[in-house]
Amino acid sequence: MEEWLSRTEQLLGKDTLSALQNSHVLIVGVGGVGAYAAEMICRAGVQEITIIDGDNVNPTNINRQLIAMHSTVGKPKTQILAQRLLDINPRLNIHIKQLYMDEVQTEILLDEAKYDYVIDAIDTISPKIALLTGCLKRKIKVISSMGAGGRIDPTRIAYADISETYHCALAKAVRKRLKDAGISKGIKVVFSSEQPDRNAIIRTDEERNKKSTVGTISYLPAIFGCYLAAYVIRKLSQK
Predict the structure, then answer these.
(1) Most buried in the list 30, 98, 154, 182, measured by CB within 10 Å?
(2) 165, 171 in Cβ contact below 8 A?
(3) What does the alpha-carbon distance between residue 232 and residue 116 come to, in Å, rounded to a whole number?
(4) How far is CA 87 from CA 26, 119, 128, 226, 229, in A?
(5) What is the pLDDT of residues 142-160, one digit of tens each?
(6) What is the C-alpha to C-alpha distance for residues 166 and 239, in angstroms, rounded to an integer?
């Protein structure tokens, strides 16, 4: 056990830390939510992580995304995050895929490795549904992030089954698409019950696969990411 993990072992015990170290977590989407989830997973001692994202850092990401700074604008998010995670744990076995997910890529991804848990931090519907249905079909454990934009109250964040979500447009769209696929429940999510500020939503067709852009505050996506990581760490600790 390395010194940097001593406080984790002190809290959770040697056997639990060993379970975390022998786990492989897949994080799809490493923007405002996913990057924080990935870092918390890494700092907890998970030794194998796969991160997926096709985006480069944009100036508009700086207000909320862990890897977004003026010095990283234009650089691939996965590469910036991988460097950061390896600086936390130089022994980390990290797999990087710089790509936009689609149904074909999802099938390949889920079949090419064994994942102990999947974190879905995708913010567009089609690849999100492909990942969730793919995990369910293969009985891979998954937790999914719903919308963090347009909100400011961290006390309204909660865990729920996808069937129990409300006041979230992304969750509503996910529920509809899952229902079309014959799925009505069985996916754990992190969501906010806070009504989003409608004035913070701008309709647009300019961004890839997005019908709107939503105003965000610095801390909400980070807390979503921590909720995702906390759930996964607890579940892996029970192995």
Answers:
(1) 30
(2) yes
(3) 9
(4) 19, 22, 30, 20, 19
(5) 999 999 999 999 999 999 9
(6) 32
Answer yes or no: pTM beyond 0.90: yes
Mean pLDDT of the chain: 95
Domain positions in the chain:
12-237
Amino acid at 113: A
Q: How far is CA 164 from the centre of its chain?
A: 20
How far is it, in rounded angstroms, from Cα 233 to Cα 200? 33
In 107-223, at which residue ranges do the beta strands (DSSP E only) sit?
117-120, 142-145, 157-161, 188-192, 201-203, 212-214
Rounded to 10°, the helix 34-43/77-88 angle is 20
> Each residue of 61-103: pLDDT tens digit?
999 999 999 999 999 999 999 999 999 999 999 999 999 999 9
The Cα–Cα gap between 122 and 30 comes to 8
Residues 69 and 61 sit within 8 Å (Cβ to Cβ) = no
d(CA 146, CA 162): 9
Q: Which tokens sit at 218?
A: 């610095």
CA angle 63, 100, 200 (to 5 degrees): 35
Q: Where are the alpha helices (DSSP H) in 75-206?
A: 77-88, 103-111, 125-138, 169-180
Written as six digits, the tokens of 236 are 């892996």
Burial class (CB in 10 A: 0-12, 13-18, 19+), 103: middle
Q: Is the dihedral of CA 38, 183, 211, 109 positive or negative?
A: positive
